[in-house]
Specification:
single chain, about 140 residues, about 80% helix, elongated
């Protein structure tokens, strides 16, 4: 017997709760990330600089990958919040570690040094993939 529209959409409230919470996490992550970095991503990107656009894009992807894993593997909204927070912390730590490795990172972003932007993006995405894989227990 085919499903009715109401039966098909029965999970919509749960979808909206997870999706809304995930979007809120993403907004919060972006707001915090641009505040902790010693350079102004949005201004630099508006100026047409590629390196900060690459690094910020990688940071967002590096956060969203494990966040998606947290959503798909969580057993409740609270569980998703806990694992989303872990993903959040891991990505912030990735920035600080990368900044220690590349001490001229802020200068490189301001001067649009693309290799530095790529390295920060790659570290962020790699950490995000590993973080997501570890969440699948």
């Amino acid at each position: 017997m085919p499903l009715t529209i109401s039966e098909s959409l029965a999970g919509l409230p749960v979808f909206l709760a997870y999706f809304g919470l995930a979007l809120a996490f993403c907004v919060l992550y972006c707001v915090l990330y641009v505040r902790i970095t010693p350079y102004a991503e949005y201004r630099l990107i508006r100026e047409g600089k590629i390196a900060p656009a690459i690094s910020f894009s990688g940071a967002i992807l590096g956060f969203v990958i494990p966040l998606a894993s947290a959503v798909s593997h969580s057993i409740s909204l609270l569980d998703m919040i806990a694992w989303g927070a872990i993903a959040f912390v891991v990505q912030i730590l990735v920035f600080f570690v990368t900044q220690k490795i590349f001490s001229s990172l802020a200068h490189d972003m301001e001067n649009d040094r693309i290799p530095s932007g790529i390295m920060l993006a790659v570290f962020s995405i790699a950490a995000g993939i590993l973080n997501a894989a570890c969440m699948t227990y």
